[in-house]
Amino acid sequence: MASPAQESTLVGLCDGEIDPRRHRCSFLTNKVGGLPDWPPHVCPPPPRCARCGAPLTHVVQVYCPLGGSPYHRNLHLFACPRAACSGRADGWKVLRSQSLEEAPSRPDPAQEAPRPATDWCDSADDWGVEEEEEGWGAGGGVEEAAAPQTHEDPLDLEVSRLQDLCLAPPPRPEAPPSQPEAPVLRAYFVCVVEESDLCGEEDADLRRAQRLLREYEKREGGVTTAGDAQDGGEEKYEKTRARHGDAVFSGFMKRISLCPQQVLRYCRGGQPLCVSSPPGAAPPPCPSCGGGRTFELQLMPALVALLRWTDGGGGEAEPEFGTVLVYTCQSSCWAGSVLEEFCSVQNDPDQQLFN
Predict the structure, then answer these.
(1) Beta partners for residue 191, in sequence order
(2) H helices within the chain, ranges in order?
């Protein structure tokens, strides 16, 4: 999910569940749930809830390099698995990681090509067998004195000696993989499309009519409806409040009605789509460079329906929210370690509409 050169909104959609037996993910994968895939040479400690100290569950991984930057760039969002924390900003954490694109390695010209399998027995010098045989003693050694007088093939005798050699210590049995501390959510791929591509050209007139209606409602300060003709056929208009009494939520619903199943929205440097009153204060500055932060992405209500624990999960309740707004360092500074960014959580005033 590369950052667009201009202010255009990218929309993330669920693109099927990830089967670990068939699919292999990396830091280049956009996904929901599962375990985080960190870039090379990046391995931060598991994050913990700032409110209760519990290990956080991985919710979303987004690959979002910036245009003209030599860095790979990822955002990982985590949430507390405890019900009392999932709807609070201090129960969430956003980590940004970056890594330089590595140039493809070139083979060392001084390194010889590996010998074909048919040449392994042509010369025992490559395996150190000649020196070993001299140590045993030629003509009257212990091995020759104890050897029975048989008509074995000399090649078979040489193979039996090679079987006694130990070129490397036996491999240690691999330890079973450690279990994650936090419960794990079921993993899904996320595909990315431009919001403008969600409608065809045939819907252009409809979009224009909706835009004119929104402008009219904004100018008039409410929603106008035509009443019955009364008092000599004169039309009667009345102003009604938006559904749920919340004009912001009504605008939110209208905007996502084009694609209600979207699970995230990405528009670095754009404006967030708020489900309730926008945050009054600006996000705090970047703790690393002191610069300002800018809006980058948000999680959408449709994502809540996908957040389900894997078998034997153990979390109290899956995370619930209206939208999670993510703000990141405007200059995307990088000092070689994972940086925590800022997020704001808005609760959904009517969650059942998205189920």
Answers:
(1) 13
(2) 83-86, 129-136, 142-146, 154-163, 204-220, 247-256
CA distance 355 to 351: 7
Measure the CA–CA gap between 306 and 217, rounded to whole angstroms: 35
CA angle 262–61–310, rounded 5-degree value: 85
Instruction: Identify which of 11, 33, 31, 87 has the alpha carbon closest to the alpha carbon of residue 351.
Output: 87
pLDDT tens digit at each of 355 positions of the chain: 665 544 689 999 999 999 988 999 999 999 999 999 999 889 999 999 999 999 999 999 999 999 989 999 999 999 999 988 978 999 999 999 999 877 555 555 554 444 444 433 444 344 344 444 444 444 444 344 444 455 555 555 555 554 555 555 555 555 444 556 889 999 999 999 999 888 654 465 566 667 777 776 777 665 544 444 444 444 443 344 444 447 888 889 989 988 999 999 999 999 999 998 888 789 999 999 999 999 999 999 999 999 999 976 666 778 889 999 999 999 999 988 899 999 999 987 765 454 4
Q: Residue 12 pairs with which residues in a beta bridge?
A: 192, 264
What single string gives the DSSP state of each residue in 231-247? Answer: TTTB--EEEEPPGGG-H
Cα separation, 210 vs 213, whole angstroms: 5
Please give the distance of CA 312 from its chain centroid, rounded to a whole number.
22
Q: What are phi and psi of 294, to 5 degrees?
A: -130, 155
Q: How many other CB atoms sit within 10 Å of the CB of residue 341?
A: 20
C-alpha 350/C-alpha 215 separation (Å) is 25
Predicted TM-score of the model (pTM):
0.67
> 341, 291 in Cβ contact below 8 A?
no
